[in-house]
C-alpha cells in the first residue's frame, strides 16, 4: 500500500475519531440524544466511552485500520458471559440427546399395547364363537 493511501486512511481514522464527539452534540431523536459512544483523543489514539454501559475501550489506529481493545472490566464480563453460554449449550446438548431415546421407548410401548389389544380382541371373539357353537344337543328319546 502506498504512503499516500496510508496517509489518507490515517486521516480518515483521525477524522472519524474526532468527529465522534461532534456527532454526539448534533440534534438527534430522544432515544439517542447523546449517542451511544463518546470519543476522546489520548496520546496513543482515542478513548471510546460507551455512554449506556459506562465501559471504556482504548482505540488505536495503525496503517489502514482502527483497533479497539476492551478494558479489563469489560473483558471479564465477556468471559463470564461466554462461560455461561458454554454451560447452557452443554446442558441443551445433553438434554436434546435424552428425549429421542424416550420417544423411541414410548413408540415401542404403544406398539406393544396395540398388539396386546388386538390379541385380546381376537381371543374374545374366538371364545364367543366357541360358546355359540356349543349348543346343547337335543335330548334323545
UniProtKB/TrEMBL annotation:
Q: Write down what this protein is called.
A: Uncharacterized protein
Lineage, top-rank taxon, reads Bacteria
The record's section on InterPro entries has:
TAT_signal
